[in-house]
Design a protein that fits this description.
Number of helices: 17
Strand content: 5-15%
Structural class: alpha/beta
Distance between the termini: 18 Å
CATH topology of the largest domain: Rossmann fold
Number of domains: 2
CATH class of the largest domain: Alpha Beta
Number of strands: 10
Shape: elongated
CATH architecture of the largest domain: 3-Layer(aba) Sandwich
Helix content: 40-55%
């Protein structure tokens, strides 16, 4: 049903589309656009040139069935610089298979047989036979499509597409500090890493403020949000964030149970704080933009197991997750956030 909806939306939006334009959707949805990155510098220059001349009207994102077309003109109008678009585009991951591609073309053929596409079933069958005989190479848009719609976009993965509302908001509001909180295994660190690359923003990690064993008493752990060394964060980080100046703080290693080096945070237009308890009320309103990242529990547990190993799951289930949830409930962390990101759902726009 999902693919059917994707194809029908494109049929309504592009009545001049030809069979190869819909086969291109099949290819992009299954494989993305990694083939364009075989020559990265050329791909980067092409993007920058196309960005400058692309028409600004139309939608920012367009679903092609698991991947998204990011239209360059609307992205420029939203204030996203070409360097940011390159980061999103170049993050494309190898994926897909011929079996998945055949499933997509089968759904397309059903719609053509029902007369719901801008062309007939025979035209689609002929185009598909030629494409299959050639080994399913990447396709160009048809000449009628290029002439009428002047396509100017890059295909990005769903993981990056989910961040577009946040990226646009940062580009428009230009916050000095973004704080990313959320559930363990939800993808906070990945979101922060993408933002850091897009905006060249240094990052403070809440994991560096692991609560030392000497403070980890029953009374402290019973306190909502007591599972972080918030006193040290307030002393070593908040003054530098508020001043905008460069600063450094000590890193506490939970592996060594001791301090292990210093992290330098340079002055920059945007700086990021990521990790659980970064929205702790003890810190006040230090962040200009508060982001909450979440995902379904099963997704998060699977990610934790892949990241840390199955042996760590009991500790997360029985200790860390309950401590987190108690703090989120006490402080209404999710409800108070400025923007919420679900990392296991297709983005909706």
């Amino acid at each position: 049903m999902y693919l059917r909806e994707v194809f029908l939306r494109h049929a309504a939006a592009y009545p001049a589309a030809q069979p190869e334009d819909f086969l291109k959707i099949c290819y992009q949805g299954e494989f993305g656009a990694g083939h364009l990155l075989r020559s990265p510098e050329a791909a980067r220059q092409d993007l920058f040139c196309e960005y400058a001349s692309a028409a600004a009207e139309g939608s920012l994102l367009e679903d092609v069935g698991g991947a998204y077309r990011l239209h360059l003109g609307p992205a420029r109008a939203a204030g996203l610089p070409p360097e940011a678009l390159w980061v999103l585009f170049s993050a494309a991951r190898p994926r897909g298979c011929e079996e998945g591609l055949r499933a997509r073309t089968a759904a397309l053929r059903e719609l053509a047989a029902e007369g719901l596409l801008p062309f007939g079933a025979d035209a689609l069958s002929a185009a598909l036979a030629r494409w299959q005989a050639a080994g399913y190479p990447p396709m160009r848009h048809s000449a009628p499509f290029r002439a009428k719609y002047r396509p100017a976009y890059r295909v990005i993965d769903a993981e990056e597409a989910r961040l577009l509302p946040l990226l646009c908001r940062i580009a428009a509001e230009k916050p000095r500090v973004v704080a990313i909180d959320g559930r363990c295994g939800s993808g906070k660190t990945s979101v922060a890493a993408t933002l850091a690359e897009v905006f060249r923003a240094p990052t403070v990690h809440m994991d560096d403020f692991f609560l030392p064993p000497a403070l980890r008493g029953a009374e402290r752990l019973a306190e909502p949000g007591g599972n972080v060394h918030y006193e040290r964060f307030a002393a070593e980080v908040l003054p530098g964030l508020s001043s905008g100046c460069a600063f450094s703080y000590r890193i506490f290693s939970c592996a060594r149970m001791d301090f292990d080096g210093v992290r330098e945070i340079p002055a920059a237009p945007l700086r990021i704080v990521e990790g659980s308890y970064s929205h702790h009320p003890h810190f006040g309103d230090y962040a200009d933009l508060r982001v909450f990242v979440t995902a379904e529990r099963g997704t998060r547990l699977a990610r934790i197991a892949a990241r840390d190993g199955e042996s760590y799951l009991p500790a997360f289930r029985e200790k860390w997750i309950p401590l987190e949830e108690a703090a989120f409930a006490a402080f209404a962390t999710e409800q108070a956030a400025d923007i919420r990101i679900e990392t296991d759902q297709f983005p909706k726009f």
